[in-house]
């Protein structure tokens, strides 16, 4: 990352992006709450990049703010979506519709007629019956009902996270926030888990293609100068870490980048052409229990990664109910830090779903906190110390006021702004949503952490071995 005294922070937002994100059936109105609180806390700057640099130089004591960048809509076209998703599925997402099934919340209990599955309601009551019947093959029903602004939503969510990653590639920022992105469950040809478009996969593909790393070639440059040779620029593919802290397993992203390549141990193998590491490593820390979404992961990729795995680049740490911040701290220090050190990524895409916080009505098994050691802010401070170009996205989070608090706190942490649990919620349009404390506090949970300390200790040992293997594989590829 740049040697600038302070990191540059960008923030992906536009009014239309916020409006269509507010229409997401599982999170109706959440986007306005999140952006409204962050704006009320005076964390955003609406000036150009050149103006920001000039103003920062002229006013070094001025409070640091994140610079707003709107989504580049050229990165949200049908052609862009087709770089991963199937044509039939993209056609279904972008299909104009004059009406949608009755608006309802798919996260609400379905114990009455008001919460009947949307496919059934649409077929019984809506005039465009065939339209929704045809869409069921793409799982655009039940938890993922189509809605009127879906075409614009899919386009702008795609554009937002890809815009964020292109800012990193072009060295226009060091950290970029995209709270409306992070839809990690969407698959190649169907929706899943309240996710319609996999903006994460598409942005990771963009990073892979455009984020080439120029090699340090001092010796070659001297020879070119001495012998008057035509300059040559050597590049390599970037190493990218996709790191997912949502309560749910990152099935859509992890499956998209899983490779069945065999990686032998370079320290004992005589292979003169060792298998090169992939461009994208995926790493998911998530809750796992019978019946918890995503269900029936037959591949075993959501299980604890075996240190002897032939492919140590799809990493997973499943956790039991009510994982507390103390456990997250142990995992971070014993598992996450060794992996990041050995992989040494050029770019990081961090999915910060907040459904692992205590009191989330969908997550239910979460016991994480915002503040304190091992909390969300603590984790972000460790990410900052890595000094890597990083895109931070949203994801799950169904207690909307607490999600807004958490993501606002993370935004403030990236800006080195002093906001804590006692900070008062500023008066703004959504002030009443933060009753009864009207502070930034997200109450800690009091459920007993169900994770066996021996399991966590073993996971740390396993990941030390995995980190060592990754370091050897990366080193062998650079020889």
UniProtKB/TrEMBL annotation:
Signal peptide: none annotated. GO terms for cellular component: Rpd3L-Expanded complex. Residues 96-126 are annotated as: Disordered. One of its GO terms (biological process) is epigenetic regulation of gene expression. GO terms for molecular function: histone deacetylase activity. Residues 71-211, 237-413 form the Histone deacetylase domain. Transmembrane segments: none annotated. InterPro entries: HDACs (IPR000286), His_deacetylse_dom (IPR023801), His_deacetylse_dom_sf (IPR037138), Ureohydrolase_dom_sf (IPR023696). It comes from the Eukaryota. This is Histone deacetylase domain-containing protein. It comes from Kwoniella pini CBS 10737.
